[in-house]
Specification:
Layout: H1 3-19, E1 29-33, E2 40-43, E3 59-62, H2 76-88, E4 94-98, H3 101-107, E5 128-131, H4 143-148, E6 157-160, E7 164-169, H5 172-194, H6 204-216, H7 220-235
Parallel strand pairs: 5-6
Antiparallel strand pairs: 1-2, 1-4, 2-3, 4-7, 6-7
Helix pairs in contact: 1-5, 3-5, 5-7
The protein binds zinc ion.
């Protein structure tokens, strides 16, 4: 993996997020550390629509300057959040933040916790944190360090109460796969809860086993992402530019 490839992968993640309707206006942001660097990261430029993002349009920013002024082309809320997280959470090499509708709906429920409803829910078993303290937009240096403290090793997902979600991963493929399944699982939660019937939950020991099986499944996220790249290469190769 080199910088050009990382740029293409992140651009592809934006394009697919738009295809799936998981973006909101031009408000959400994804970032990814450059291969071989622990400080230099890619971020979408403010105002760019996810469906039109290209590899070369991604900004390259320095997380070691977190706390300083935002790049003029970066969204300030993205800068305050992602720069601090990349500085403080080494395992969060890729950070995806969206207001995707089903997961955000769940983030608005009082005391919500993800339930082990089905096989896909189990991949999030004990890998989710909940921030229940919405305090306005991320426009200062306090929110990043606060959220960083929630990203213990093994935690991939944070429900941001009354706001949205954040997903982290080692690679773009891994983080995108997590984001995709999170929204699928959230959709299932909304459907199941909407019946008003009692939920039949998977016991903890089986959920833990199934989670491990998900995480050890050979090439799972890579297979998914490779299939998505093939479609983009054929249908909208401009993302690579
Ligand atoms: Zn947001």
């Amino acid at each position: 993996m080199n910088e050009a490839e990382q740029r293409r992968h992140l651009a592809a993640a934006f394009r697919w997020t738009a295809r799936l309707g998981l973006h909101e206006g031009v408000a959400n942001h994804f970032s990814a550390l450059l291969p071989g660097s622990d400080t230099q990261f890619l971020l979408n430029a403010r105002g760019a629509h996810f469906s039109r993002i290209t590899a070369s349009s991604l900004l390259s920013l320095d997380a070691s300057t977190a706390g300083g002024a935002a790049h003029p082309d970066a969204d300030p809320t993205a800068w305050f959040l992602h720069a601090h997280l990349h500085r403080l959470v080494p395992h969060a090499r890729v950070i995806l933040h969206t207001h995707m509708p089903y997961a955000t709906s769940l983030a608005c429920l009082d005391g919500f916790e993800l339930q082990m409803l089905d096989q896909s829910s189990c991949r999030f078993f004990r890998r989710v944190a909940y921030d229940r303290h919405f305090s306005g937009m991320f426009l200062d240096d306090r929110e990043g360090p606060r959220l960083a403290a929630m990203l213990a090793d093994g935690v991939s997902t944070v429900f941001l109460g009354n706001h949205g979600v954040m997903v982290v991963g080692q690679t773009v493929a891994e983080a995108f796969d997590e984001l995709y399944y999170l929204e699928r699982v959230a959709q299932l939660h909304v459907y199941a809860l909407s019946t008003g019937r009692p939920l039949q939950l998977i016991p903890d020991d089986i959920a833990e086993l199934t989670c491990r099986q998900w995480l050890e499944y050979p090439e799972g996220p890579d297979l998914h992402f490779r299939a998505l790249l093939e479609i983009l290469d054929e249908e909208e190769p401009g993302y690579r530019d």
